From TrEMBL:
InterPro entries: tRNA_endonuc-like_dom_sf, tRNA_intron_Endo_cat-like_sf, tRNA_intron_Endonuc_cat-like, tRNA_splic, tRNA_splic_SEN2. The keyword tRNA processing applies. PANTHER family: TRNA-SPLICING ENDONUCLEASE SUBUNIT SEN2. Residues 91-174 are annotated as: Disordered. GO terms for biological process: tRNA-type intron splice site recognition and cleavage. It catalyses: pretRNA = a 3'-half-tRNA molecule with a 5'-OH end + a 5'-half-tRNA molecule with a 2',3'-cyclic phosphate end + an intron with a 2',3'-cyclic phosphate and a 5'-hydroxyl terminus. This is tRNA-intron lyase. Pfam families: tRNA_int_endo. GO terms for cellular component: cytoplasm; tRNA-intron endonuclease complex. It comes from Stegodyphus mimosarum (African social velvet spider). The active site is at 252, 260, 303. It comes from the Eukaryota. Residues 222-310 form the tRNA intron endonuclease catalytic domain. Belongs to the tRNA-intron endonuclease family.
Amino acid sequence: MEENNASLLLTPAAKKNCRFPREFPFPILRDENAASLSDQEWKYIIGHLQEDCVVVHDDEDIKLLFTKGFFGVGSLSKKVPRVCWSTRKNNDFRNQRKQQQQPSTSSFVSEMSKNQTEDEEIEVVNCEDDEDEKSADRKHGDEIEVVLSDSGDSMSEDEVAEIGENDSDSKSEEKEHLILTFEEAYFLSYGLGCLVVKDKGQPMDLLRLWNKFCELSVGQNFPIMYTAYHHFRSKGWVVRSGLKYGTDYVLYKDGPPFYHSTYSVVVKPVKEQNFRDAYAGGKPHFTWSSLAALNRITTNAGKGLLLLYVIKPSALSENKVSTPYCISQYKLEEVLFKRWVPSETRDEEELS
């Protein structure tokens, strides 16, 4: 984006009362005691290929991936993996609850009390956007605080209540794993070199992994979607699914626990010779009505709508698309879609 358009860019909205420390942005560690494939001081994470995702089983690896970069979601919660939850001491919690207890929250508190000691409190992170949170503070601020220990996606009040009710049975529940999208898994393998993906117990090299993801991805659009994902991750954004807002991705500064997502991103593949037309197998054209509706959704949620055009060069053959080489050959064009409000954008001379 041009420097003279910097005033059009949105300022990331910070979340209030963020009390847990910031971790490293990527899950790269040097572990002298861990053996690896090539470097004895390099920490490798093992993932297992499934039909539509890559699964990580080890609890320590799950914590590492989720707290350092916010990669993946829990297989059971679909948000924050349970291994990322923790308890912290809060000696004043029960006394404060007695003073501020209200009938509307008494049943919830009683359920939580059955599963906690008198001086402990469940911590779960708030890692997803809640558009209501941006305009006003939560009305139930005097209830039990539910915050993540390290990071994660936001949880609704019903889900929080369910945590309290089911906490006593958590030990008998099925073990939760971390689910990575193909784009997340390949970025960890190709971009960072900290993930080894196995298929039926056999490690996969980067070329074989690329071809496998291309084969399994919906519409075989993995090269386009990964190029977009890699682009934003390399610019420092934390990239998460934008399905909730009808887009491909949402972008966070630093991470979901610290900021609300700033932009919703729609990825649009096009041909180089005809920038306005989507090439075969890509997404259909936007109509003005659909674009206006999408912009209204993102605007009401306090975000900006960003269109990312992934331009396929004419000289890029299908053989080159079958390798990671094509990532450097695609051209990217960012377009920030913004509603024009005459009363806010007219020149001062026109207003006078």
